[in-house]
Amino acid sequence: MNKKLHILVPCTGSKTKKTSPNLDFSNLSGTLLEKFEKWCNNANKENNKHLAHDLYCGPAWSQVKIIKETFPAAKIWIVSAGFGLIPWDARIPSYSITFSPNQPESIQHEGPGASKYKRNLEWWNYLSTWASNPGPTESVTTKDLLDDRHNRIISALPKTYLKVLEKDFITKHSADLLIFSSDSSLNPILKDKLIQLDSRLPLAIGGTRQIMILRLIWKINIIINKGSINSIRDKVSQLMKNHEIIKYRRKPLSDEEVIQYITLKWNEIKSSHSSPSRSRILRTLRDEGFACEQKRFKNLYLRLEPTLL
Q1: Region class of 113: left (phi > 0), else alpha (psi between -120 and 50), else beta
Q2: Which bin fits 273, alpha (ψ -120 to 50), beta or left (φ > 0)?
Q3: List of residues 6+ apart from 220 with CB closer than 8 A
Q4: Taking each helix axis from N to C terminus, what angle separates 118-131 and 32-45, rounded to the nearest 10 degrees?
Q5: Which of 130, 146, 234, 261 sees the fewest Cβ atoms within 10 Å?
């Protein structure tokens, strides 16, 4: 019997619509639970909603759309820090909140001394409770998908989002689960579910590290539906075997080049209705193969910041 294909993808910080200040996590105060209660209240009052697949944008989301075209019968589920596990065609308001660290709207900023993912997990548990009751979106719980033995679930999530679902994944379930990840710290219980990736993959299939899992799923689409996990692992190994693991040799930039880069990326992020931040731009700079020491980058950013606001 063919299993029903479900693909889990992350939400994106870039949106096509402007976010209401009431749904910008950085504007909320109080404990994490108090912030969640305010978040739910604000979301329930928001009337300006959009189809999720039209709201998200950016390079990663363009790849998600290609996957949807490649697997028209598959159910695409979005792991949203704002609304939980939502379908491709859910209607949601624009919002600004993320499980990724070091951004103004990051949940991970919460609380001194908290373990790295603790606040994200707490927030996800709140969202799962919200999904179990009538809410503003068509969200479900991960358990709903995992408990159906007729499902094949493909996780195409980056590390920070995968960590949020890890606890759900290690519970006993009936579905066929495949996890594509380069995360070496994944719970050992999930080893038999893991297709291990590394820095050779972008060389083999093209694209950046940020979208490599999504590109891989598109690339090996023929065996995603019915292939065994071992056949999929073999295919991935074949793709990567002729490449060496990348040891980063980033190109140094002058002060003027760094300033130009900051200005360009700040405007790009702002135009996508997302929140620019120093750490976010530095991470993008390094991901694109450039080098700048963190303290030097900070000084240049702070010097330039008044002209950006």
Answers
A1: left
A2: left
A3: 227, 232, 235, 236, 239
A4: 40
A5: 234
| Three-state SS letters, 127-151 | HHHHHCCCCCCCCECHHHHHCCCCE
Domain ranges of the chain: 4-240, 251-308
pLDDT at 111 over 50: no
Q: CA-based angle 104:63:103, to the nearest 5?
A: 5
Q: Which two tokens stand for residue 251?
A: 């190109």
Rounded to 5 degrees, φ, ψ at 153 are -110, 125
115 forms bridges with which residues in the sheet? Answer: none
**Is the predicted pLDDT of residue 39 greater than 60, yes or no?**
yes
State the average pLDDT for the chain.
89
Residue 101 one-letter amino acid: P
Structure tokens of 163? Answer: 């960590």
- pLDDT at residue 137, as a whole number: 59
Please, what is the Cα angle at 73 between 67 and 74, to 5 degrees? 55
Please check the confidence at residue 113 and state whether its pLDDT lies above 60.
no
Q: Chain-centre distance of CA 87, in angstroms? A: 15
Q: What is the mean pLDDT of residues 91-113?
A: 80
pLDDT digits (tens, 9 = 90+) for 224-259: 988 999 999 999 999 999 888 766 678 899 999 999
Give the ranges where the chain is alpha helix by DSSP (H). 32-45, 52-55, 59-70, 118-131, 142-146, 159-170, 201-205, 212-219, 221-224, 229-240, 255-271, 278-287, 294-308
**Region 105-127: what's the mean pLDDT?**
78
